[in-house]
Every structure is written in C-alpha cells, then in structure tokens.
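Hey, I'm writing a tutorial for new members on how sequence and structure tokens pair up, and I'd like a real worked example in the thread rather than a made-up one. If someone can provide the structure for the chain below, I'll link this post from the tutorial.
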Amino acid sequence: MAGLLVLAGTLVAAPALAQDTIPVQDGLAAAETGTLVVDIKPFTSEKELPKKVARRLQSGALEWGIRDRQLVFTLVNKQFIDFPISHMTRYGQQETLSLPAGEYKVTGIGLDMTTSFSVEKVLERGAFVNEDVLVFRIEPGKTTTLSINPIIRRDATFAVNFWMPTLMTRAVTETEDMPESALNTRGPSSIAWPDYTGPLKFVAK
C-alpha cells in the first residue's frame, strides 16, 4: 500500500512542472483575466498529537491540478487519476495563478482507510469522488482565494495510526465569503470508486 496515499506528513516527490491548460487567447485584455490564490492553511488537530507525528505533519502537502476550469484535489495517488495533478502545495503555503475570468468547479477525490493487502481492494473499498463540491467565479481584474483548512483526524488500520486531513474549503472573493465544504468527506452524493465512470479515473488500455 506504500505510495498509494498522499498522506499528511509523507515526503512526496515534487511533481513535474506542467502548464495549466486554460489558455488565455491572444489579444485578451488583462482585465479579462483574474487571480486565483490557492491558500493551504497550517494543519490543525482535534486532539493532541505526539511530537514525532506533529513534526512530520509540518511538512505535509496537498496535490492538485487544474484543467478546463476544473480543479481537482486528491488523496489518492495520481498514478490512478487521469488528470494533470501538477501542483503540490505544503501546509501553510499558497500558490497564485492568473486565469481567464469565469466559473470554476472543485472536485475532491477522497480515501477512507481500509484493511487490505491489495491496492485494488483499498481503492475499491475506500476511494470515492466528490464532484463539483464547490463552484466559484474569477472576475476580471479581481482576486479569488480558495482557502483550504486541513483538519487532522486519526484513522487506525494495521494497528498503525494514519493521520488523514479533512479538507474544509471555501472560496473568498473581494465581496463574498462562501460557506465551508469538505472536499474529501464521504456523503450521500459521493461516488464510490467502483461506480465512478467519469473522466478522472485512469483506466489502462
């Protein structure tokens, strides 16, 4: 199961740099683009953490990507995702992108820890997709901040403590502060990995 998860505190190799495929057409005025800030807050915990775990979590990071006005944040390793997951942002840091104005949607790919010696079984039992959890707009010449607050909870399997973040996320504009939504919490609208037939799942051909 090693390498399956992007776990908080795990050292993840920096992804290859890739251009975000939302081209700005030649001749568009600067006023027709806006700014997106992806702001990952420092992690917090519902309970006191062992010092060793807390130190490891300080270097935790989230992997995500953007294409065609869709942002995807994933806790499932990107080798199973058919989407350009080309960003890794550490807790307490942020990234800034200049993007065409318009509507954007956010999808979260989550994973509930299960006991299994098979990667396929872990995905089958635990992985799920939360489509379009959040919808926001980037306005011309304005800044929109996607604020993500990783709240650490403990989920035990194999008698080992796995520290998984719940990604509480909201969009903040210059005139609006939207309510928080959890990107990676399983709910009634979540699509279990075996049932998901959309474009985000990599299927070997």
